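note to self: dont lose this again. the chain is below, predicted strucutre after it. 348 aa total, dont forget to put it in the shared folder this time
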Amino acid sequence: MVDYIVVGFGLAGLSFVNKLEDNNKSYLVYENSSEQSSRVAGGLFNPIILKRFTPAWLASEQLQLAMNVYKNIESRLDVPLISMFPILRRFNDVEEQNLWFEACDKPLLKGFLSSDLIKNQNKALEIPFHFGEVKHSGKIDVNAMLRLYLSYIEGKNSLVTESFEYDKLVVKEDFIEYKGVKAKNILFSEGYGLRNNPFFNYLPLQGNKGEYIIIKSEELKLKEAVKSSIFIIPLGDDLYKVGATYNNQDKTPDITVSAKESLENKLNRFLKVAYKVVDQVAGIRPTTRDRRPFIGTHPLYKNLHIINGLGSRGILIGPYVTEKLYASIEKGVTLEKEIDINRYSKLR
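---
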C-alpha cells in the first residue's frame, strides 16, 4: 500500500508531490499530459495585479513560501529553474503614473513597488510615459521543472503514463484501490480535466483559455519582463513569450489565428523593431467563479482529496494550498473557508 495516488501533474500536482517527498511519503502519479495549462504558462511570479495596482491574494505569504519550495525543487533536481528580474509596467498616461504613486504608499504594496519612475532606454520600445518597477518578481522555467520532475518520479518507478479510469476506483473505509494498487489517500489535481471527474465535477470550474506566441527578435535585447496590455517575457537566445489571451468561451486545446492576430496587434502598438513569430501555444486555465482555488476532502469519502482552480497564479498559489491541504489530511487542521470546497456543498 502506498500513502498517496496523485492524478494529474501540473503545478498543483507537482507542489503536492514535492510535499510528499519532503515528508518521506510513498506515492504513485498518474499523468497523461492531456492538460497543458501549466506547461504553456508564462512562468512569471508576480505579487501584484498590474491592471489595477493592487496586491494579489495573500501575496507576501505566498511569495515567501513559493520561493522556498522552488529553491527546494532546484536542489532536488540539481538544476537552476528560478530567474529573478523586475517587471516593468508601461504607463499609458500621466493618470496611471499618479495611481502608481498612490499605490506605492499603501502598506501591502510599498515593499513590491518602486516609487522611482524608470525612463525607457530601449530604442526597440515606445514608452512615452516611463515605467513603474515591480520588485521581487521573476520567472520559473515551469516546462523544464515539470518535465524534469516527471523524469525524477519515473526514476523512482512512481510514474504511470496513462489516463486515469475513474470507474476502476474502489473506495473503502480506510483506503482506496485502483487496478490492484492500494493507497491510503488519492489526490486529484487534473486542472480543467476536473470536468471528467465524477467525484468532484459538481464544483463550478469555469475554464479560461490562454494563448501565447513565442517571438524571436535580435534587436529587442530585453532582460526584464514588460507589461503593457500584454506581457513580454524574456526566454533567452533572443526569444520572448508574448501574451496572454483570455477566452472563457473557447474550451478547445487548439491554437487560433484570432489569438495570434490579437497578440500581434497589441505588441505592435509599442514594439518598434522586427520580430518573427516562431511558435504559438494554448492551454485551458482552471479558473473559478470566486477566484479562489478548490481545496479539500470529498464530503462523503475521507480519503479522496482535491487541489484545483489555481487559475493564472498557480506558481504562487500551488505551494500555499499544498501546505494547507497536507496539514488538513495528515494533522486534521481545519481548512480556511474561502478555499475549502465545502463552500459549494449545496451544489453537490
